[in-house]
Amino acid sequence: MTKDLNQHLKDHFDEVRPTEEAVTRLKEITALKTESHPRPILVSRRMAAVIPLLVLLGGLFFEQSTAVQKSAAVTIDSIAAEIVANHEKYDRPTHQLSSFDALGAHLKGLGFKIVKPVSWSGDGLTVTGGRYCSLLGQKAVQIHLIDEKGQRVTLYQTRAAPLFDRLREGEARVRSKNVTVWTEGDVYFGLASEL
Amino acid sequence: MTGEDLDDLLIRGYRYAFSLTGNATDAEDVLQEAWLSVLKADGPRILPYLFRAVRSRFVDQQRARKRTPLILLTSDVLEGQSLDDYDAATEMPDWIEARRMQEALHTLRSEEREALYLNAVEEWTAQEIADFWACSRNTVLSLIRRARQKMAHELGELREQRVSK
User: Which in A17, A42, A151, B124 has the greatest CB count within 10 A?
Assistant: First the structure.
């Protein structure tokens, strides 16, 4: 009894499946994105464009800032979900280096220099490596660290593009992980750690 | 889109990513980034769009790793070749193990593996693949034929090894 190559390939790829965890993660991200719906961002941008006019007319600024805060809250959830997804994957670092400077010297394709964030001491954390990744479709770096208890911590850096204007800083919790995001100059940071 | 439709879309996206990368870890990575880009662009949640995103992410990944890029715009024209010129039903024994099949697939160049996957598993025609890649149909036909020859060779060797045991 013989089968043709096409059938063999179909049978073979039938068995090729992503892990349940990966599918669940993508579905969760999908749900978050669907809830956030991109249109409110467009609305916010339009509103931002007319802020000077609103200021001139007076009185409506409070309403505008409330709308911005709402948009920011939703988007922080979205980016936190993506950061945690990357954190949980914890792909092996392409560069096993022990300092921000060394990583910066090797990972040069980001359009900015990898730096140790000044507003975060990093006490008790050891850099173990880094790799390219992406945040909201932007090129980013995932820096691997280990804390004093041996737990994984991942730090993300990407260019602080206008995309991040609505979420310059904030905190969120996703699946027992704590996520903090903040901005320093033209670099946007995200930190994921176990609760 | 129902949950089942989304599952099916993601699984097929993963299989395609797997056909490109040849390993599970990279396939998941590529699929995740591709799916995020689809969501970010608020693109249609349909197979061709996801495949395009997966392919784009794979190319980015390869460039980042400074490996051989995937782009295959060098036409390898086979004179007078038509769709009937390659044997879509190369007969194989039915005992090929998954691991052996994977090893045989690994002997293919990524573009050969991709062409073979799209043609044999997704049942795309050479013209559909050519449209997807924006290259000539002859290039696709050439890749598919070469992929089939290599697979037949690899799996043929396997059969001999098995008999000798």
Answer: B124
